[in-house]
Each structure stands twice: as C-alpha cells, then as structure tokens.
Amino acid sequence: MLPVQFLPIQFLSGKLLMQEYLICLVWHEILPQARETGGSSHYTNTMKASDIIYKCPQTIAEALKLLSEVDQPCQPLAGGQSLMPMMNLRLAQPGVLLDLNRLPELNFIDKTDGVIHIGAMVCYSALLSSGIIRHHVPLFALALPHVAHKAVRNRGTIGGSTALADPAAEMPALLKALGATIVVISQRGTHEIAADDFFQGIYETALEEDELVHSIKIPSATEKQRFGFYELARRHGDYAMAGVAISAQSADPWTELRIVFFGVGDKALRATDAETALAGSVFGDKAALTRAQNSLSSLEYAVDGSMAVETRLQLAKVVLQRALKAM
Ligand SMILES: Cc1cc2nc3c(=O)[nH]c(=O)nc-3n(C[C@H](O)[C@H](O)[C@H](O)COP(=O)(O)OP(=O)(O)OC[C@H]3O[C@@H](n4cnc5c(N)ncnc54)[C@H](O)[C@@H]3O)c2cc1C
C-alpha cells in the first residue's frame, strides 16, 4: 500500500494558481540544482519543500534497485503536477525523490493482439495526439480534454494519475470503465492488477512501497462498442464536482455496461445497480433511465462537509442522464 500522506489539494480552495507557481519553483530551481550534481544529490531547503535526496536513475532496473534499497520514505516523481505542489505545501515530505523522467522504457504506446499498452510516463497530451488512442481508446479522446489545462496535460502522466488515485480525477474512473489492467513492477517481478481492484480508497491503491506503475493495458474498442463521458465542473479544467465514464458493448439494447462515477465518493465508484437497471433496455428508454437514476442512492458517497450527500446524488443522476444521452 502507498502511505497516505496527502490531503486532497483540490479541496484547498483558491490554491490552484499558487500550485502552478510552486510547480515552477521546484521544476526550474530545485531539480536543476540536483541534476547539475550528477543526478544524485542532497538538496538543502531554503524555500518551501523539506530536504530531499534526489535520485535520477537511467534504467528501470536502477530505479527498482533504488526503490527497494532506500531506508526512508521514497516517492517516484512523474509529471510532478500533484507531487510538487504537495511537497511545497509540506503535505508530502518524501526523504528520497525518485525521478522517472529519464526512463524511456516507460514512455510508449503500442497495440498488440487487440490490447493497447501505454507506458506509465506517457503524458495526457501525448495520449490526446496519438492516432492509436484516438482509434482504439475513444473514451480517452472524449474525457482527457477535461483534465486540467494544456500546461498540466503536457506534463501530467497516466502513471502518475493512476498511482495517485485521486477520487476526483478522471483517470481512475476511465480505467475502471474500460476494464483496464495496471502492470506493476518491482525487483520481485511484474504482475497485473485489474483496475477494479487497484483503486482502494482516497489516495490509496494496491501498490506496495517497492513497486512502480509500469504501464496500463486497455482492451482495444470494438466496432459496436459505445462510450460516454460527462462531468460537471465549476470551470472547464477544474476538478469535477461529479462525473461519469461509461462503456457498453452495444447501446441498442444496452449490453455489458460499465458505469463509473468520479468526484462523488472516496474512490472511482462502479454503479453496478445502475448497470443492471439499464441492461437489456433500448437506447432512450425513460423508465429504465429512471430506474438507473434511482439505484444511484446505493452508492457510497463521500461525507466530507464540502457537499451534502443529497447534492452528490442529484449531480450523479444528472451526469448519468447526460452521458447516456450522448452515447
Ligand atoms: C492546476 C492543476 C489542475 C489539475 N486538474 C486536474 C483535473 O482536472 N483532473 C485530474 O485528474 N487531475 C488534475 N490535476 C492533476 C494532474 O492531472 C496530475 O498530473 C496527476 O494527478 C498526477 O500525474 P503526474 O504525472 O503529475 O504525477 P506526480 O505528481 O509526479 O505523482 C503523483 C503521485 O504518483 C506517484 N507516482 C508517479 N508515477 C508513479 C509510478 N510510475 N509508479 C508509482 N508511483 C508513481 C508519485 O510518487 C506521487 O505520489 C491538476 C493539477 C494541477 C496542478
């Protein structure tokens, strides 16, 4: 399990511009200092983040060795779009920062035998500009423009978002809706975890401390398969107040539905009762939609004081209706 060291930063209202400033600070000042000293150095804090030992492995084997040998909390650094603000706000204080940005082995998009395989260090912008993704994972093309803003999408990675498991993020819900598998690697070997089992709670995953997310496997979309996505956010690019990602083998009638909500619970929530309520009905069947919406009261909504459970339920009903209508 990853140590839960983070507070949900998107709930710290008014901090987003501050985050962008802090990212620049670490990216342009702290890391260059460390890199100048040969990729492994001790940075003494004079600014915001606590002291770190910075490691910049050149191969996965080296990264895994470092991860298994360190004797203090170690955190991999991917795009840094979540980790750096958290470090600067001292919500995360890793003793060792393991920079994954020099590992080309984690930066690939392949299609083999009907499976799309994406390396952990592929950023959102690369996903959005990939022909393989556009044709074979159309749900990403629908959803990823809603993740933050271009500057964040240029650095934020699929592996970072997966490992972070932010309940308000799009990626965990997309991976569950697509029936994806997370490939996990450590010095002990490689194994695969279904997205349904990987995301366990708020910032909590099935990853062990000596493991890295290596890549993600997603079944290639079939001709008949349909996808839906809808989110409600205060402004485009903000974290969603509620959102849903949907896949179905067909829409008329609905078969093999996977309906997954984000932003409403402590993790991406699969709505199996709503899937059952819609299964076998035809596209546009209002009675089936009402049954599906009513079934959403059985979801485990977050109780955190930022929004009433009744409001979350109402938002979930709205995003479900709008996502299904557009499929
Ligand atoms: C202004 C702003 C707005 C944003 N809005 C949104 C939004 O609307 N939706 C959204 O989903 N996200 C949003 N984000 C977050 C963004 O998507 C991040 O990129 C993402 O959450 C983490 O990806 P990263 O590559 O930056 O990971 P990092 O920040 O580098 O790392 C995140 C965590 O994952 C761990 N980690 C990274 N890679 C691996 C790996 N391969 N194996 C194991 N552990 C790993 C790190 O140690 C850390 O704990 C926003 C961020 C900012 C700054």
Summarize the structure.
The protein has 327 residues and is an alpha+beta fold. The protein has 13 helices and 17 strands. Helix 11 (272-278) runs antiparallel to helix 12 (286-295).
Report on this structure.
The structure is a single chain. With 327 residues, the protein is of the alpha+beta class. It folds into 3 domains: 9-99, Uridine Diphospho-n-acetylenolpyruvylglucosamine Reductase, domain 2 (2-Layer Sandwich); 106-219, Uridine Diphospho-n-acetylenolpyruvylglucosamine Reductase, domain 3 (2-Layer Sandwich), CATH 3.30.465.10; 226-325, 2-Layer Sandwich (Enolase-like, domain 1). Helices cover 34% and strands 23% of the residues. The protein is built from 13 helices and 17 strands. The chain has helices at residues 16-36, 60-69, 83-88, 124-129, 131-136, 138-143, 150-153, 158-164, 170-177, 195-198, 272-278, 286-295, 309-325; strands at residues 40-43, 52-55, 74-77, 96-99, 109-112, 115-119, 181-186, 189-194, 199-201, 204-205, 212-219, 226-232, 242-248, 250-251, 254-255, 258-262, 269-270. The strands form 5 sheets. The protein has a 5-stranded antiparallel beta sheet with strand order 5-6-11-7-8. The chain has a 4-stranded mixed beta sheet with strand order 1-2-4-3, sandwiched between helices. β14 and β15 form a beta hairpin. α11 (272-278) packs antiparallel against α12. It starts with 15 loop residues before the first helix and ends with a helix. The model is unreliable at 1-18 (pLDDT under 50). Bound molecules: flavin-adenine dinucleotide (FAD). Residues 16, 19-20, 75-83, 100, 120, 147-148, 152, 155-157, 159-161, 163-164, 166, 169-171, 212-213, 239 line the site of flavin-adenine dinucleotide.
